[in-house]
Amino acid sequence: MQQATPSPIPDMMPAAARPSPRVWPGALLVILMWLAIKVPGWVAPGTIVQFMAMMWGPLAGAALILAWWIFASRFSWAVRLVGLLSMIVGLAAAFMVGHPSMRMGFIVFGVPVSVTALVVAAVIGSFLGNRSASLLVPIAVLGVWAFLACLRLDGLDGSINSSVSFRWTPTAEDRYLAARAKQVTQQASSLPATLPGALLLSDGDWPGFRGAGRDSKLAGVRISTNWNEQPPKQLWRHLIGPGWSSCCIIGDRLFTQEQRGVDEVVVCDDTSTGQELWAHSDRARFAEAMGGAGPRATPTFAGGKLYTLGASGILNCLNPLTGKVIWMRNIGTDAAAPTPMWGFASSPLVFGGLVTVITGGAGKSVMAYDAATGAPAWAAGDGWSYASTQVSRVAGVDSLLLVTARGASAFDPINGQFLWQHDFPIGSANRCVQPTLVSDNQFLLGAAFGIGTRRVSVTHNGGTWKSQADWTTRKLKPYYNDMVFHKGHIYGFDGSSVVCFDPESAESNWRANGYGNGQVLLLTDSDLLLILSEQGVAALVEARPDAYREAGRFQAINGKTWNHPVIAHGKLFVRNGEEIACYQLVDASQRG
Fold first, then answer.
1. Domain count, the chain
2. pLDDT for 18
3. Is residue 401 within 8 Å of 442, Cβ to Cβ?
4. Are 490 and 453 in contact (CB under 8 A)?
């Protein structure tokens, strides 16, 4: 009986008998993958849909493309295995030798670009034959990974757009540290020979995050608005270390925080010259790829002392005249709380002799310390937030407000007793903005990623508290951009659009683009909004509901700007993670 001759395996087939490569499905999958990644950002920018598309679109697309490549491309098995190994080796090597900041970038950018390169090489190789494809595919794929290993991620903006550089180029922090090293005179203290006995809060000061009321409102000041013809005069400007702190202004002293290499630093500058008076350093460094390095919270002045919180959890009470430590705590240790993904961000709040911060610890979401000694006073609440504690008078009662992913809650600011809770959960997202009061018993609670804003009403009858949702809308979606309330209307950011929003109808009166994800400060006497754009542009916009009108603008600083602007004693102070500057807004004779 004649034995059947086995069929040759595909790689041993004569070239004429081998089916031609089938590349059109790969090309189609590449197009669909990029549409899945990009279209959500065009249709629903700044939402969880865009974020999920950026994270899962590359992985899903790559899985389908590799499945086509292995099982349906019809290239020789040798070519297919070379392509698959190139992807695996390239990705593994990039993770091992690439810049640490690019690790997420290797997934978000590297995976889709590398599989695209594989398909492009396959299309070209399909015309040139398996031998050429066996060379083109690994060259294209490994070339992409080699190029990505040369890059550094410098962070993302508020619209989730990335900024990358070659890894060997100096960062903004590198340039700043190099400039400081050359300025030997700045390394020594510039304190005057004679210091006042105490530093006291006075009219015109800006004592902490978003001002005295934590509401970004300034009364009693009128400024010139012809910025297009005559922009504010720059008094000083210099480089600064990374960080998202704003400024605290007391008299002629400016307090802020920055990162200097391995140290978190609290800095005191002279407001007239920008010259450093003193700096307090803690050996701590927090950094993450999206937001970068540095402290997130703003210093607070109260009772003749300065309170600061670093991104790694170090809570300091300092002498504002010298920077000398009065007391220090680590809130992560005190609350048994891990450092959050984006760092500790709560600007200290001093009220009733206590300083409170958000820790995120179980049962210790908020901790209060004795403002004089640093001794723990009370702890309460659950949940995490990148906002700050805030004392507001709600339904006639002073209440310490806490916003978390669950919603909003209130505590007695003196003893930490629980008052009420309102649930408005946002899943795995985080809240970053302060609650905005619109009446004695109503406030707005907002969140980004398409979640939106709710108006909450709170009533207090005897010992009974009750909260209810008046309305919920997706027409106002603040991310880390705090809002202001003025003459019955809300002014702030809906994603990257500036809006005037009616809290009664839950509708927008107008909206304007071009500011990125910026911050707002209200000049109440002038009905003006000072908007500091994400690109460092300072703009004046009329705080009127009838129509959007920009009065003027100028480029105040350069670089990504998320920090809140400050106006104190007739001067505008702006900073970001690269620069800090001071501009004269009001002559001494004009201050009111």
1. 2
2. 60
3. no
4. no
The pTM is what?
0.89
Domain CATH for 387: 2.130.10.10
Q: Are residues 212 and 142 in the same domain?
A: no
Do 99 and 227 share a structural domain?
no
Strand partners, 357: 367
**Using CA atoms, how far apart are residues 331 and 518, in angstroms rounded to an integer?**
29
Question: Which residue type sits at 100?
Answer: P
Q: How far is the CA of 13 from the CAs of 19, 22, 71, in angstroms? A: 10, 17, 18
* 62, 206: one domain: no
Q: What is the pLDDT of residues 182-241, one digit of tens each?
A: 875 445 556 666 677 788 999 999 999 999 999 999 998 888 888 988 899 999 999 999
Could you tell me which residues come within 8 angstroms of residue 485 by beta carbon, excluding any fewer than 6 positions away? 215, 436, 437, 438, 491, 503
Residue 550 lies in a domain: yes
Residues 254 and 398 in one domain: yes
- Provide CB contacts within 8 A for 130, sequence distance 6+: 75, 76, 78, 79
The DSSP symbol for 108 reads I
Q: Mapping DSSP to helix (H, G, I), strand (E, B) and coil, where does residue 93 land?
A: helix
Candidates 385, 380, 391; CA nearest to 346 is 385
CA distance readout (Å), 393 to 208, 226, 422, 436: 19, 38, 16, 12
Q: How far apart are CA 199 and CA 31, in angstroms?
A: 63
Q: State which residues form the domain around 90.
A: 10-153
**Residue 404 to residues 159, 407, 516, 523, Cα–Cα distance (Å):** 22, 5, 25, 29
> What H or E segment, with its residue span, contains residue 70?
helix 48-71
What is the per-residue pLDDT for 132? Answer: 85
> Shortest CA distance to 297 belongs to which of 206, 361, 212, 388?
388
Q: Has residue 159 been placed in a domain?
A: no
CA distance 208 to 221: 18
Place of tokens 């004046």: 540
CA distances from 410 to 395, 399, 423, 462, 553 (A): 12, 6, 12, 16, 39
Mean pLDDT of the residues in the chain = 90
pLDDT > 60? residue 317: yes
Among the listed residues 214, 195, 194, the one whose alpha carbon sits nearest the alpha carbon of residue 206: 214
Provide the terminal-to-terminal Cα distance of the chain, rounded to the nearest Å: 113
User: Which tens digits make up the pLDDT trace of 488-539?
Assistant: 999 999 988 999 999 999 999 999 999 999 999 999 999 999 999 999 999 9
Q: Are residues 87 and 235 in the same domain?
A: no
